[in-house]
Amino acid sequence: MARVVLQQITKTFQNQKVVKGLNLVIPDGSFTVLVGPSGCGKSTTLRMIAGLETATDGEIFIGSQSVNALPPGKRDVAMVFQNYALYPTMNVYDNIAYGLRNRGTSKKDCDVLVKEIAEIVGLADFLKRKPSQLSGGQRQRVALARAMVKKPKVFLMDEPLSNLDAKLRNQMRVELTSLHKQLGSTFIYVTHDQVEAMTMGDQIVVMSDGNIMQVAAPMDLYQEPENLFVAQFIGSPPMNIVPAEGRSDQLWGFRPEKAVLLPASVSPVSAEEMWTAKGQIVSREILGSDTLFHVETEKGRVIVKTETEEIGQYGSNVTVTVAKPHVYIFDRVSGKKVGRLAERGQVSALAGGVN
Amino acid sequence: MKRVGAISLKTVEWAGLLVVALLFVFPFLWMASTAFKDMSEVRQFPPTLLPETWEWGNFVQAWESGPFLMFTVNSIVVAVAILILQFLTAVPAAYAFARYQFPGRNLLFGLVLVALMIPGYIIFLPIYVQLSGWGLVNTLWSLILPYAASAFGIFLLRQAFMQVPDEVIEAARLDNASEWKIMWTIMVPMAKPVLVTFGLFSFIYHWNDYFWPLIMTNSDEVRTLPVGISSLRMSDGGTLWNVMMAGNMILILPILVIFFVAQRHIIKAFVYQSK
C-alpha cells in the first residue's frame, strides 16, 4: 500500500506533448479513476506510473520512493491490460505464478499463493486450462489474479472492462469495487467511460489534452464542475450550454435532469426564480425509466430529461424551466466556472427542489 | 445438368492433382523398388515396376561397403550442431530486430536480407580459404561453422516475434522478467510452430547437403552420409544401382520419420496466421 505522487510529469512523443506537467496526489488506498476522451494522455500517465514509458520530465513517487529510474518489475505495481495480455502458451496456473517465480518465491509458497488467489477469483477448477480455452470473463479473472497474487502496493488498470459485454461489465464493476475494499490497496484505473468512473472511483481525475481538468469525488464532480469541459464530460446526457442573458462574456449551463418541461399554455410559477425558454420538441428518446426530450428553443437547442414521457409529443410547443440555483455560470473564454445564478437553498419546492 | 458439370470439374481437378502427385512420388517409388531388386532385374528391359524377388541383402551390402556407421554419426553431429547453433544465434538476433530500436537497425537487417540472397556457391571459395587458414578444413568444424547463423532463420523468427502483442511483453516486464527470460519463456514458446518448421528445413537441408561436405572433407573420418553414399557409385564392375538406391533409402529414412512425427507442426506453422 502506498500513495502515488506525480510532480510536473511531462511526456513528449516526437515533439508532441501528450502529457503536460501533471501534478497529482493519489492517496494511499484510494480508488482513483483517470477519465477523459481518447488521446487525452490518461493511458500514457498510467504507463509512466507502471514504468512502461519513461517520463520526459518530472518525478514519480510510489510511497516515499522516487521510481523514475526503476524498471517496471521493481516498482511493486501490477497492471491489468485491456486485452488481458495473458501468456498464451502457459496454463492459468503458470500465468499466475510467473511473476512470483521471477521474484524467487519458493515452489511451495508459490503453490499456496496461486491456489489461494484462484479460489478468490473463482478459477480453482481452471488452473490447467490454457487462456484460449477460457471465456472473456474468465480471462479477465486470470489477469486480475495475476496482478493480485503479487500483493502489489499499487494496482494499475487500463480499461480492463472494455472488452467484456455489457452484463459482464456491470458485474465486474461491482466485483472490482468490492475487491478494492477487501484489499485496501491503491487502485489507479483508466477509462474513457464516465459511468465507470462515477460508479467505481472515490477520486476522479478528469483529463483533457494532456492536462488535468479537475480532481474530485464523483458527486462533487457532478455538482460542482470547475469548468465547461468537466460539466460537459461528466453526466449523461451532457450539461446544456446556453448563452448568458445580458452578458456576452459568459455562458450558462444546466443539467438535463434539472430542467422541467411545461406545456406552452401553462405559465411557470415564480418566473423570477427561473430560467425559462419557449420552444418546440424536435425529438424524443425513451430510455425506459427516463425520457430525453430534445427541444429547439429561442435560446438554443437543449435536452431535458424527465421521468415521464407524457408531457410532450414530437412537435408540441413547450416551455423549458430551470431553477436558477441549478444554472451554472461559466466564463466564455477560459471555460472556468464563475458560480451559479442563485444561491442553493433559494428555490421553492415548486421548482423541483435542490439537492 | 449443373450437378454433372460440378462433378466433372471435380474429376478434372483430382486428375490434375494425381498427375502432379505421381510426378513427385514416382522417382521416389522407383528408388524404393530398385533398392529391393537384384542386379539382373535392374538391367532387365522392359523394367519391372515391383521387384520379382525382394533382395534385402542390398541394404546389408550398402551398409557394409564403407564406414556407414561413422558417416551416420557425422551426419547427425553436423546437422544437430548446426541446428542448435542456428537457434542460439537466430533467437536473440530476431528478438532484437523485432523488438528494439537501436541505431543501425535497418542497415543491419538489410545485411541479413542480403545474406539471404547470396547463394552459397558464390562464397564457398573465400570461406574455404579462410577455414583452411585456420586449419579447419577436413574437420567437422568446417561443416558446422559456416552455417552457425542463418539469415533465413533470423528473418522467419523476426516475423514471428513481431506478431506477439506488445502488452504480453509489457506484462512480463511488470512480472519482473528480464529480457533474456522474456525471450526464452514468452517469445520462443509463442513462436514454436515457426521454430519447428525452421528446424525441419534446416535439418533436412544439412542432412541432405552434398556439395559442402564434398569440398570441405577428403577423408572418411569426417564425411557425412550423402558423400559416403555417392562413393557407392565407384565400384569396379560398373555402378550397382540397386545397392546405391538401398544406400539412398538409408539416407532418407530418418527424415521420413521426422517428417511424419512433425507433420502436425508443419501444417500448423503455415496456417497459424489465419487462426
Automatic annotation (TrEMBL), chain A:
Residues covered by the ABC transporter domain: 4-234
Organism: Brevibacillus parabrevis
UniProtKB keywords: ATP-binding, Nucleotide-binding, Transport
Any Gene Ontology CC annotation: ATP-binding cassette (ABC) transporter complex, substrate-binding subunit-containing
Name of this protein: ABC transporter ATP-binding protein
Highest classification ranks of the organism: Bacteria, Bacillati, Bacillota, Bacilli, Bacillales
Domain of life (superkingdom): Bacteria
SUPFAM superfamilies with a match to the protein in the record: MOP-like, P-loop containing nucleoside triphosphate hydrolases
GO molecular function, one term: ATP hydrolysis activity
Signal peptide interval: none
Gene3D superfamilies per UniProt: 2.40.50.100, Nucleic acid-binding proteins, P-loop containing nucleotide triphosphate hydrolases
UniProtKB/TrEMBL annotation, chain B:
A single BP term in Gene Ontology: transmembrane transport
Topology of this chain in the membrane: Multi-pass membrane protein
Cell compartment(s), UniProt: Cell membrane
Keyword Transport: yes
Transmembrane annotation, as ranges: 12-32, 68-95, 107-128, 140-161, 182-207, 240-262
Database matches in InterPro entries: MetI-like, MetI-like_sf
Superkingdom, natural source: Bacteria
Family: Belongs to the binding-protein-dependent transport system permease family.
PANTHER family attached to this UniProt entry: ABC TRANSPORTER PERMEASE PROTEIN MG189-RELATED (PTHR43744:SF12), ABC TRANSPORTER PERMEASE PROTEIN MG189-RELATED-RELATED (PTHR43744)
Name of the protein in question: Sugar ABC transporter permease
Organism per entry: Brevibacillus parabrevis
Source organism phylogeny: Bacteria, Bacillati, Bacillota, Bacilli, Bacillales
